[in-house]
Amino acid sequence: MVRVTHSSIPIDIGTNHRSSSAPPNLTHSRTSAARPYGLRRILSHLLQRVLVVCLIVCLTFSSMPEAWAQVQPQLLKQATDTSAAESMTAEEIAGLNDPFFNLLLKDHLDTQTVNGISQRLRPDRQETFVVHERIVDNSPTVGGGSPASRRSIITFDGNTDGEELNRNVMLSVFFNSESFPSVPDIEAMAWDEGNGKFNYYKLNEARGEAAPSWKFRGDSKGADLLSASAREGTCMACHIDGGMVMKEFKAPWNNWHSRNFQAEYLFPGARDQWPVVDATNSPLKDGPAGAVSLESTTQSANQRLNERRMAGMKNGDRVTDAKRLLKPLFVTTEFNLMSSFETAGNHPFGNGRPSNNKIFLPISFFLNSDLMGGIGVETFQFNEFTDLDTEEYQAVVNRGKTRLGNQDGDTHFAWLTPEASNIDTIYVEKLINDGVVPESFVAAVLAVDLETPVLSGDRAALWNADDILPTEFRTGRNNDLTSQTIRNLERLNPSSDSPEGQFLEALQSPDPIRFLQSKVDQYIQREQRRFDSREVRSEEIGRLYRKLLVERDKVEGDAVLSHLIESPLLFPKGDIAALPETVVDPAPLDRPTLREGDQGDAVEDLQRLLQRQSFLNGPIDGDFGPGTEQAVISAQRQFGLEADGIVGPATWEALEGTTNPQPPIDLPVLRVGDRGDDVAFLQQLLVDQGFLFGPVDGDFGGLTRAAVIRAQRRFGLDPDGVVGPATWAVLGA
Amino acid sequence: MFPYQDPTGTSFLASQGALDAYRSKLHRRYEAAAQEAGTRFVTLEKFQQLRPGVQPQDVVIPWEAFPIKQAGSSDTRIDRDRSELQEEYVEWNLETEGSEIKTITFTTEFPEYFEALADVNFDALVAGLKEIIPDANPSSQELLGLSSPPSALIADGLVGGKTWTVLNRVTGMPSESAKEPFLLRGDRGNAVARLQERLHLLNLVSVVDGDFGPGTERAVIKAQQTYTGAGHFFQEQLSKNPWNNGQNGIYCMLQRFNTLPFLFNLVTLCSVPKNASPQEMCGIVDPECVPERNSDPIVCSTAQRAVQGDSLLSLKDPAGIRIVEMKGLWRVNGTPIEINDPASNQGIWTVSRGGRRGVLRLVPGLELDGLRIRTGSQVARKLMVGADVLVASASDFQ
């Protein structure tokens, strides 16, 4: 985290960022402002807009009344990027009551630089975050020599003249590898607590203006209701619900500077440091701040917006606009992006090397894990088997003919997927918190089209229908949302496999949360069978990858959400037709009785099962040797079977039926602090194999732990010093 | 030896006679870390040798307390499974009345502090616990796993197996007590030097000369009077200790990755300069650095970035993890409060023990980002903890 105190910011109010020798000019007027931007900079500016512009620069051809530029500065407004700038009425001005307006725009419209803004806001702390679709590219130039551009988001903390800055004022400023900023434009959003809305402002130079000026660019009121066409050219094109948009909300953040991808070139002293770090006025002198800090600000700010949105749809304990209120539960209003934590290594211009670790597919690709976790539904078992070897991932990326932009390649972090957005998730959590919507109702909605966590046509259709959700309902103790919805659904007499039928079944189940958990468990078991099956595994990975490409296309095809795709470098594209749409579920395993010395495919299946459950650590080679036998014996002990090392029907059944091994009865999990015969047995094994040089005293202390770690390292296990089934197995217990 | 501070910012350890035991344990960690091949991690003594007028850079490395790796686990599961899932160098516990949560306690404290107290005697250990849980009435069985605490050594100045064992445990020196000879005044040689080395760590002798004279004898007697060496039992009992496993409260961490040695290991290995981008370092020193953790990658890359820039570094005293900041919008009955400001947060969030303990009091009407507090995980998502690292350019050392 970079903490920049106000006092450390060099004073330079001038607009001429290139000439550091220019004296501070606190009173410059528009007419006296020099035009420091040459043709190259304008071109670079235009290029940036193509890449990552959310608030799009005005390119209006209507002319500005010349007089306005001459009289006393007054805040202008601009409806869309292509409309003319207009003056604001006194009433409209009176409707602005946020810290950015109050501290700056009200009386200091001539403040037109980031440093100037800092001086007006006088924050205790200022943080600079960096985002870009090329964040992993350290090259200081793009496209034949122009300086590479990045977007910065600047936040403030502190209280100035009674105005709270934290999560209330955010700036968006472009910079490039040479200078900060790279364009005169500054976008700002600021929270207006009294009116319960975000106000949007932009400093830009509209056609007909002699110099840049600040403009009010609308507010968040009613943003959720806007049609796609009404959003065109406004800030609400990207700020779909009117709040802050990060697009990526959890580690590892594919496009943000973060702890998971650190933009070294923005740190002072780095080998590939960009000149901008040392440039005049650069807020990057200590490096940028990591995305996690902005994430916290975003969540708090957006939830506050959510609260004010909801307030307008309720009247006491009555919801008066049920449909609008319930939309984020059924409809993907915004999306976030998630990925695995592993570097795929085939980014067309990143330097990331392929990770040595397995690629764990994000759980939120499979289902809405965040919201489910909030209502106590466990999905973590996906993490126990949906891991791909780097080779497997490469194979499917190639099979899908994956391209990023116009080159072969993939995102920096593997498996970039749209997931449910944080603003929708916390909105629903707030509805539950306030007793507006019961958890069981949320569970029933999530049970419909379970395997499509975002952009589900089925759930959207339920919301869209005129005759399913009530128009009004009571909240709190006498909540009648569920009963009304059930009545409406029953009237439709839906077939059991229709979305309406699925919804009704879930709502009517005795415990919709358990109903959902059981559906999730079935889903997990089906996927696990496919991942465990030699015949089906690679086809299933292909099918899932196809689903991933389809999800990305769905976002692109959505008239509203597609505004958030600000660059062709956001989503890799692929050849959907080259990937399977369905797979045939694996036939039940052929289950011959196996013993040491056997070889073949069935042994491979056995080894895979043993490895999955941490009994076996060795290679899957189809060869039933002593290691496999030891693993079988360990498994048999754990399952309470005769520990003979021979795999008959009972052992097969136990291995296939178990997803969550329980600690064995006769060989417990041991760790530091444990005592007794089991510890003595462990110590004897460690002594016999030369790991422990100490007493066999039944006391699991530091020496024993060190010996266990030595053994675990030797056998390639996680050296955690804790003796579980895998450690027992390698020790030959 | 570097004068390592009492990490709570008080003189409590000294008042219990445990400061030297604490210092010797910490000292051993620093020494071992600085000896790692190729590392640019140095001891704090080395940092005392900066050229006059040069101040080291004090780098705070923060991360969020919530274990992001555990995505897909419900918040209640993460709350419940402290010893497996709370693995960001911070652990928490809920104190409830009926089904209602009353307080949520976070700790980043390592057990070494209490081990030092236990090394003195059981009373000192109990006093340390009472500093945190004032009405605690723990038994020896609970804290040490022993029906009665180890008795004091006979203060006879004779160094037999028991004295060796206690000295080894208290100083954290390699334990080969069984092989050490019986020593008494008048002996000379390497074994005496090894004895003196331990006494020196405990600030009881000033010279290590291999000569067991009257000074050494007085020091041995002092050590025998001062230490029972029970820290080792305390450590092994941690997960069963009801005053720490949540049954009656918590006071220090017990998760297997949340250990002082793990932290030292991480920083030491990540401070070996490599011809790689700093952020690749975590993958290089895997498994000591776990990419899916919040803490490890940022600690590792920060260390590597510093040493690639030709700096030396160390963990700032007091070495450990501290609570840096609580994020989020906190309100009581709709009115925002400055949660990090003790003067105005109505006692709802209290950080103590040098930032190693934080207690959240769930008053009626308390909301975090619009939601009632239902789990500790919810709060952990907003809690930033961090490590303090000292960095200085290699050329600034004398």
Describe what this molecule looks like in 3D:
The complex is a heterodimer of chains A (733) and B (398). Chain A has 733 residues and is an alpha+beta fold. In chain A, the strands form seven sheets. Chain A has an eight-stranded mixed β-sheet, sandwiched between helices. In chain A, a hairpin with a 6-residue loop joins strand 1 and strand 2. The longest helix of chain A has 21 residues, at 291-311. With 398 residues, chain B is α+β, with helices and mostly antiparallel strands. Chain B starts with 11 loop residues before the first helix and ends in a 5-residue tail after the last strand. Helices cover 34% and strands 16% of the residues of chain B. The radius of gyration of chain B is 23 Å and the shape is globular. The mean pLDDT of chain B is 94. Chains A and B meet through helix 7, helix 10 and helix 12 of A and strand 1, helix 4, helix 12, helix 15 and strand 11 of B.
SSE blueprint:
The complex is a heterodimer of chains A (733) and B (398).
Chain A: H1 39-52, H2 66-70, E1 76-78, E2 85-87, H3 90-94, H4 99-105, H5 114-121, E3 125-131, E4 141-142, E5 146-147, E6 149-157, E7 159-160, E8 163-164, E9 169-176, E10 186-192, E11 197-204, E12 213-219, H6 228-231, H7 291-311, E13 314-315, E14 318-319, H8 322-330, E15 335-338, E16 359-360, H9 363-366, H10 369-374, E17 387-388, H11 390-399, E18 403-404, E19 407-408, E20 417-420, H12 422-433, H13 439-447, H14 457-464, E21 473-474, H15 481-492, H16 499-508, H17 512-532, H18 537-557, H19 601-612, H20 626-638, H21 649-657, H22 677-688, H23 702-714, H24 725-730
Parallel strand pairs in A: 1-12
Antiparallel strand pairs in A: 1-2, 3-6, 4-5, 6-9, 7-8, 9-10, 10-11, 11-12, 13-14, 14-21, 15-20, 16-17, 18-19
Chain B: H1 12-15, H2 19-34, H3 44-47, E1 57-64, H4 75-80, H5 82-85, E2 91-97, E3 100-107, H6 112-120, H7 122-132, H8 140-144, H9 161-171, H10 190-201, H11 214-226, H12 231-237, H13 260-270, H14 281-284, H15 295-308, E4 311-315, E5 321-326, E6 330-332, E7 335-337, E8 349-352, E9 357-361, E10 366-368, E11 371-372, H16 376-380, E12 383-393
Antiparallel strand pairs in B: 1-12, 2-3, 3-9, 4-12, 5-12, 6-7, 6-10, 8-9, 10-11
